[in-house]
Amino acid sequence: MRFHIQPTINPIHEEPRMTDTDIILLGEDLGMGANKLYGALGGLQLPSQVAANGTQRVTRMIGLRSQKPPLHLITEQGQFYVGAGAHDWGRPVENLDYNRLTGSPEMQALFYGALTHLLGTLSHTSIRLSLVVGMPLEPLTGEGARENVLSVRRWMSGEHRWVADGTSWAVTVTEVKVTSQATGALFDHVLNGQGQFHPGGRAALKKEIGIISVGFNTIELLVVRDKKPVQRFTAGATSGVRRLLELINTRRMYSLGELDTLLRAGKLDVREALPVWEREVTGVVERYWGQSWKRFSPILLVGGGALLLRDYLTQYFNGKVVLPDQPVLSVARGLYKLGLYQRRRTHR
């Protein structure tokens, strides 16, 4: 089963291409399975695979195919390979707790890798960025929420320097706004590529809209009514795509990154594990939404796992599911649209 290949750049045509003297607006989806960026230059996802100490290579051998290495980065924290296949080239770094989002070495490496791929056509030394960042719900709730947001702003703001495959980069982030990933999905649904409400967009915000974000680590549920979250329907559970891979990897012979690469390439047999995972997902929905989902219109389904669950959840929700044209990039694209919308309001 195939659901996305990295790195994928999807150009959009509503917004003119910016020069490297402008402040470039980007939507940044800090996902556990992939780092997603979206802006006027297009959209990209870089699988969250990081390997450390990946500086040694086997010389080419007769009879074996040569293999192109992943992107190699040198940062203040060390040397890393990032992206699909990185775990074949060094020691896998797999840390799926939320602390990584607040500026861990592997998170910074993934951010730099994604920027390298997306901004590769621009000058490498005079780039200024404004970011609208989407985070999972859990670190945005509870006593530590404020500190988590401040930590993300702290590490993402200011000057960043790194070397990617021998090329030096210098980027300055002038502004960081933080919201939930589900908010990005909502605004992807109601705004067009210019940050304006499409026909029916304003009216849709007054209804009860259900949002299911199926990420690598978690499944997140959110219901919005009249632009406000309905607290009792807002929840998250660690039943994302990672759980499907764990059902397959019972003997732990592979890293999660290796299995994720096989899944993305359509080379992983999920026939036995997929029905089990599907029932776990609907169990989460039943626990928090019960039968109340019948009054939601529509139910947005986004995230990398959305493509795996599309048919099952469409049937489960009796056709209420709306799948964006790019469900993997929907959150980052919606964050970018939200940034455009806020810019327009500011400059009125």
User: How many structural units, i.e. domains?
Assistant: 2
Report the major sheet: 10 strands, mixed
CATH topology of the largest domain: Nucleotidyltransferase, domain 5
Q: Could you tell me how far the N terminus lies from the C terminus, measured between alpha carbons in angstroms?
A: 47 Å
Describe the strand arrangement of the main beta sheet, using strand numbers. Answer: 3-2-1-8-10-9-5-6-4-7
Proportion of residues in extended strands: 25-35%
Low confidence ranges: 1-21, 58-64
How large is the radius of gyration?
20 Å
Helix and strand sequence: EEEEEEEHEHEEHHEEEEHHHEHEH
By CATH, the architecture of the largest domain is named 2-Layer Sandwich
CATH homologous superfamily heading of the largest domain: ATPase, nucleotide binding domain
DSSP helix count? 9
Calculate the mean pLDDT score and round it: 86
Summarize the structure.
With 348 residues, the protein is an alpha+beta fold.
Structure overview:
It is built from nine helices and 16 strands. With 348 residues, it is α+β, with helices and mostly antiparallel strands. The protein folds into two domains: 23-183 and 330-346, ATPase, nucleotide binding domain (Nucleotidyltransferase, domain 5, 2-Layer Sandwich); 198-322, Nucleotidyltransferase, domain 5 (2-Layer Sandwich), CATH 3.30.420. The strands form two sheets. The chain has a ten-stranded mixed beta sheet with strand order 3-2-1-8-10-9-5-6-4-7, with helices on both faces. Strands 11, 12, 13, 14, 15 and 16 form a six-stranded mixed beta sheet that branches. Helix 3 (181-190) packs across helix 9 and helix 5 packs antiparallel against helix 7. The longest helix has 17 residues, at 273-289. The chain starts with 22 loop residues before the first strand and ends with a helix. The model is unreliable at 1-21 and 58-64 (pLDDT under 50).
